[in-house]
Amino acid sequence: MTVTGPDFLALQVRDLEQAAKFYETRLGLRRLPTAPPHAVVFDTAPIPFAVREPLPGVDLDAARPYPGLGVALWLHAENAQELHDALSAAGVRIIAAPFDGPFGRTFTFADPDGYAVTIHDKA
Question: Where is each VOC domain found (predicted)?
Fold first, then answer.
């Protein structure tokens, strides 16, 4: 038996519609027409990305200092600086300012639930 790698990524969120709207309007992601119950799946490649209601027993408010601590979630964008500028202008909290590194222009922001999401633009 061999695992071949990540195949699906999902964040558990407090308010499903608010989170889905954030990823649609601020990052430009598009919803897939079908999704499992209690989730919104986006048309991302090569790995599907989703937001979903918390599973039973998950208390996102107890996750301190923020949910996902210790997990690195990186998403690719065509122009990281442009996205940074738009998110910053919209009042989205920037955790790490843009810098140039091995993955191109890179920065990290906090989504509405406090997840740290890193954006880079090198394919």
Answer: 5-122
